[in-house]
Write a structure and sequence with these properties.
By secondary structure, the protein is of the alpha/beta class. It is built from 23 helices and 15 strands. It has a nine-stranded mixed beta sheet with strand order 1-2-13-12-7-6-3-4-5, with helices on both faces. Strands 9-10-8-11 form a four-stranded parallel beta sheet, with helices on both faces.
Amino acid sequence: MKKSPLQKARAAYKPKLPVVLTGAVKAVEGKPTESVADQAQIKALFPNTYGLPELRFEKNSTPAAGRPVNVGVILSGGQAPGGHNVISGLFDGIKRIHRDSRLFGFLMGPGGLVDHKYIELTAAIIDEYRNTGGFDIIGSGRTKLETKEQFDKGLEIIKELDIKAIVIIGGDDSNTNAAVLAEYYKAIGAGVQVIGCPKTIDGDLKNECIETSFGFDTATKVYSEVIGNIQRDCNSAKKYWHFIKLMGRSASHIALECALQVQPNVCIISEEIEAKDMTLQDVVNSIADTVAARASYGNNFGTVLIPEGLIEFIPAIKKLIAELNNVLAANAEATAGLSTDALEDFIKSHLSEANAATLASLPANVARQLMLDRDPHGNVQVSLIETEKLLSEMVAERLKVMAAEGNFNGKFSALHHFFGYEGRCADPSNFDADYCYALGFNAACLVNAGVTGYMSSIRNLTKPSVQWIAGGIPITMMMNIEHRNGADKPVIQKALVRLDGAPFLKFAAQRDDWAMNTCYIYPGPIQYFGPAEVCDQPSLTLRYEHQGK
């Protein structure tokens, strides 16, 4: 494999472990836990893995001799920077337990476990992927592990390879599947541990014990670099409004973090739109007012950041989507095989009057997207809805009305961008390289501790990495019941942007100034070599959340 000079230099980087993980450790139990909501229902669904205590690793002055352990690893869901370092840390961790330990990677996600497709990850393979972006070491996939047949089929290859534990690296849905798998294997006495690692660039898998998901830091820094470049061009040409859509289907953490880093003229936070019960037209009017206000000072340019999940947070559209999901789930047989036009007519005929009116108010292409396309988890594929173009077109129409009323005297020319895949496989920042390696190494410690149904947890992340706190939390602790595909299902509760949280309040205190004035920051590219204040800083979201703690 040919490597660039940066790749060669980056391969030599040695991730920094929390000091507690640099020697033998012992697991110290905390208090029993309970789920964040719906405790009785979650307990009934997970009788063998509910109520487990939090774990914290401490140095062990009397380490026991380790035995060889075989471990399987799965990359699940979308890519996130640092996944290779999680696997590297896991590999080094089980090798420290015993040099004859072996790591098997299941190919292309959970489907590899079910279909018995795997490779053994040797030192030679691992060394090629340290500190690199992507998931290409074994690939990833979105197969859901949810049926007894899948669990039993996976157990066949687990037994054949004498695997003691499966480590699933994924987001909230993937780790929900990990919890279900752990419960099943525990219930049948399979003797197989299941450990999760928190991955998603969206930043919505977090709580008091999981301070951030890996990949968020790198991805937001990549996006912020490109937004900063656009803002420099914007401030140079002084004639375009750039509408920039950013990843974040279920929460606006990416948009908020990027706004804090680059200080755009407008940043929409979906959670605020929902809290204020705003309509799509309300959002458009707000943007148009900013465009007109800047134009009054001769500034016919600006930047607008838009989270990709905005549509789902507008209350009227959210109600529409909920009914659409129920109609599709309840009539799966009746709608099977229908043509696109016939399916649309069927759906429209089964909607309530209010939701039918909301659907009719939307542009035809957006309405069709809401009705037809779903991902494997039953979610609307909002990334396919060109919200940035929809908003700019509606803003242009609004400005025409304002001009006729004498409330707009300027020019409006829009350009559009969607930043998503650019950030998912970037080489990890120093923070993510260290964090991911620690998560993987820590997962090996959880395997050695003999526990199952836990997620690898590294805390105290705004401190130097040597001071990070290592341990594990029961996955059931993060779960609640949600209505999906017409049924109530246990899932890990998504962490939304808190409107009373420090990151949002920091943003809200400054956005009026950013709107009227040109306060752009140009962060530049991720720096891997140099002083810690340039290279090792965590996200602003994480820093603001921890100020005063």
